[in-house]
């Protein structure tokens, strides 16, 4: 049946990676296809031109198994344009089908790209049948972009204009001009406004008119689109009116629901909203609900109270973090006091060189101040390592900074552990990335200090 054939088509399309060429740039057709897809899901048509994908040349026949392009005199398949992706589906003929994976425009011709499962030649009659479920999902997203555009202009201002869009079967993407990020409250208001218009269930009104007349009626034009003198105008209640050649739902209620999933910047002065509609919106909400339920379970709460429970836990965690840091600093200060017993003398100057293991780097400054007070006069060089990160600090009491500079000392050690640093003459810090070299680096301090004090 149709569903089985479509499943096989999708599998073959995934394998056809070489068939991703931009045919718009390489192929030309003088044919003209009459689009019948506004009111028809299937239509009888004649094959008027064929191209194979291998040579990208016109052919009289595509053999079974070949990939290529079929151009018909009439088609219900929408060709990618105005942000709406092209239709997929099947071209039925005696003995098999041509499986259409995408539809694009080649001039005035509609090019059905895909794979033949039977021989298909020029002048063959076919029944062209779109993938109705996929089309239904696409047009929900397409009509939703019209509502979204109108809502953004009402909420953010009339400076908002469309800068690009993509409407496929999974989601919609809408780019628009705006000078700053859209706030959470503004997004909420836009989303509510669109869903209000969906619930109002406006009927879609379409009419053809001259472009000047359309603009006088306030119809919005799509960014980057070229229009003929006569244009198609799509109106949704008194909420939205746009020039558009695309396919839409019959009533806004057919969209079901719109849910905005992200807002971001793509370029200077251009913002992007991504959203889902219909079943996609319900699926997204169900995923979010399941995620929230899981969080609620982890914090031993229900969904209603999960947010406040998480806030409590975060506050508690921050308090414990602060207490833990204070305890570490107190322990480090105590360890620092004990270090005084490890001082050595070089040319009459007290020198303390120590590897403190995994003491936190932010505790080092307090330790050096404490050691200076206890030593009264001297030179201090301390090192720590937390994972791959090395922390270094040098301290020199003020009576000695004319002979030894803390910045020079710490930089000398840092260069040996994959880092660099500097600071004031009396205290300087540095970092590094080679904790395995700390021992050798500290062993070099005595000789360096001896040379400076000579």
Entry keywords:
single chain, 454 residues, alpha+beta, Elongation Factor Tu (Ef-tu), domain 3, Threonyl-tRNA Synthetase, Chain A, domain 2, Diaminopimelate Epimerase, Chain A, domain 1, 3 domains, six-stranded antiparallel β-barrel, six-stranded mixed β-sheet, 11 helices
Give the overall shape.
elongated
| Biggest sheet descriptor | 6 strands, antiparallel, barrel
Distance between the termini: 95 Å
What does the average pLDDT come to? 90
CATH superfamily of the largest domain: Threonyl-trna Synthetase, Chain A, domain 2
SS class: alpha+beta
Number of strands: 23
Residue share in β-strands: 25-35%
Oligomer: single chain
* Annotated CATH topology of the largest domain: Threonyl-tRNA Synthetase, Chain A, domain 2
Q: Quickly name the level 1 CATH class of the largest domain.
A: Alpha Beta
User: What is the alpha-carbon Rg in Å?
Assistant: 36 Å
Major sheet: order of its strands?
Answer: 2-4-8-7-6-10
Supply the CATH architecture of the largest domain.
2-Layer Sandwich
Helical percentage:
25-40%
DSSP helical segment count? 11
Identify low-pLDDT runs.
Answer: 12-22
- How many domains comprise the coordinates? 3
Protein architecture, described:
This protein has a six-stranded antiparallel β-barrel with strand order 2-4-8-7-6-10. The chain has a six-stranded mixed sheet with strand order 18-19-20-21-23-22, with helices on both faces. The protein is elongated and about 105 Å long. The protein has three domains: 2-130, Elongation Factor Tu (Ef-tu), domain 3, CATH 2.40.30; 136-296, Threonyl-trna Synthetase, Chain A, domain 2 (Threonyl-tRNA Synthetase, Chain A, domain 2, 2-Layer Sandwich); 332-453, Roll (Diaminopimelate Epimerase, Chain A, domain 1), CATH 3.10.310. The protein starts with a helix and ends with a helix. The chain is an alpha+beta fold and 454 residues long. The protein has eleven helices and 23 strands.
């Amino acid at each position: 049946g149709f569903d089985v054939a479509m499943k096989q088509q999708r599998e073959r399309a995934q394998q056809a990676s070489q068939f991703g060429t931009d045919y718009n740039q390489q192929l030309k057709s003088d044919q003209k296809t009459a689009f019948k897809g506004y009111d028809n899901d299937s239509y009888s048509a004649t094959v008027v031109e064929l191209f194979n994908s291998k040579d990208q040349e016109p052919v009289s026949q595509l053999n079974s198994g070949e990939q290529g392009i079929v151009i018909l005199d009439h088609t219900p398949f929408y060709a990618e344009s105005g942000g709406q992706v092209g239709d997929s589906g099947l071209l039925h003929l005696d003995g098999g089908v041509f499986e259409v994976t995408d539809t694009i425009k080649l001039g005035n011709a509609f090019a059905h790209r895909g794979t033949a499962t039977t021989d298909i030649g020029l002048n063959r009659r076919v029944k062209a049948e779109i993938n109705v479920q996929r089309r239904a999902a696409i047009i929900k997203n397409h009509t939703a972009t019209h509502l979204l555009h109108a809502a953004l202009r009402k909420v953010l201002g009339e400076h908002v204009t469309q800068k690009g869009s993509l409407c496929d079967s999974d989601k919609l993407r809408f780019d628009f001009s705006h000078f700053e990020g859209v706030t959470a409250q503004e997004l909420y208001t836009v989303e509510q406004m669109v869903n209000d218009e969906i619930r109002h269930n406006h009927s879609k009104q379409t009419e053809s008119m001259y472009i000047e007349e359309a603009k006088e009626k306030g119809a919005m034009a799509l960014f980057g689109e070229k229009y003929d003198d006569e244009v198609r105008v799509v109106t949704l209640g008194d909420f939205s009116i746009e020039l558009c050649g695309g396919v839409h739902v019959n009533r806004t209620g057919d969209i079901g629901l719109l849910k905005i999933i992200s807002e971001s910047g793509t370029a200077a002065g251009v913002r992007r909203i991504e959203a889902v509609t219909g079943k996609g919106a319900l699926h997204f909400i169900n995923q979010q609900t399941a995620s929230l339920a899981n969080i609620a379970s982890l914090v031993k709460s229900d969904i209603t109270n999960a947010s406040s429970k998480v806030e409590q836990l975060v506050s508690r965690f921050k308090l414990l973090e602060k207490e833990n840091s204070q305890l570490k600093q107190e322990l480090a200060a105590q360890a620092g006091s004990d270090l005084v017993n490890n001082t050595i003398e070089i040319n009459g100057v007290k020198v303390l060189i120590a590897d403190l293991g995994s003491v936190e780097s932010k505790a080092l400054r307090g330790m050096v101040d404490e050691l200076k007070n206890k030593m009264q006069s001297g030179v201090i060089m301390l090192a720590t390592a937390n994972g791959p990160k090395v922390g270094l600090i040098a301290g020199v009491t003020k009576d000695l900074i004319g002979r030894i500079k803390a910045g020079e000392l710490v930089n000398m050690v840092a260069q040996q552990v994959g880092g660099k640093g500097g600071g004031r003459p009396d205290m300087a810090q540095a970092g590094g990335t080679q904790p395995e070299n700390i021992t050798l680096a500290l062993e070099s301090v005595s000789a360096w200090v001896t040379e400076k004090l000579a």
